[in-house]
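Re: beginner question about structure tokens

> Can someone show what the tokenized structure looks like for a real chain? I only ever see the sequence side.

Sure, here's an example I had lying around. Input first:
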Amino acid sequence: MVKLCVFDLDGTLVNTLHDLTDSLNFALATCGFPALSESRVAAIVGHSVNYMCEHAVPPEHKDQADKVLKLYTEHYKEHSLDRSHAYDGMIEAVEAIKRAGVTVAIASNKPHADTVKVVETLYPKDLFSIVLGRMDKFAIKPAPDVLRFIMDFFKITPEESVYVGDSDVDVQFAHNAGMRCVSVNWGFRSEEEILSAGATCITGDPNRVPELVLHDPGMCGGC
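And the corresponding structure tokens:
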């Protein structure tokens, strides 16, 4: 029986790509570097903002990554909700899972303050039992530290837990924590990338997320 469902944020619950791209391109332009397309930003989002900025600057200017990171962080703090929005159907999907008696939570590599701000603005108050973004005390995903913390906090086992995410990193994250994974294909990675990471349960329909989380993993091949 599933007792805990943990969600990724960017690309899974919320489409943040426009605001991420705008803030990153502001930082790059300020430093005199070319802008990136949204598809390129999508490819480097998900590990951490440090990783994103390191891979955004031209290879010969890696020494400027910290400056880009600082500018990006300052800009995004003020513009993280300019165009971001919850994916259609995902508020209802989370609510349905919670109504089934499952504890719902968020574990994201997005900085913690930004994570909380986006969730509190775009999702109903008190929907999630715990919301955790990137914090120094946890290794970033796919290291399983934050998932293990959440499971320990609620005294729930990996066998009773499911992770929902949109990326190869999320598949690895769930695997490293010993929990089942439900992948969605409307986010920042292609279905091919998700499959290559080992995903076996992928949906493009938010309405199917509750049944895939709550019921027999054989419905989707398991994860």
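Each token stands for a local structural state, so reading them left to right follows the chain. The CA atoms of residues 82 and 151 lie 33 Å apart.
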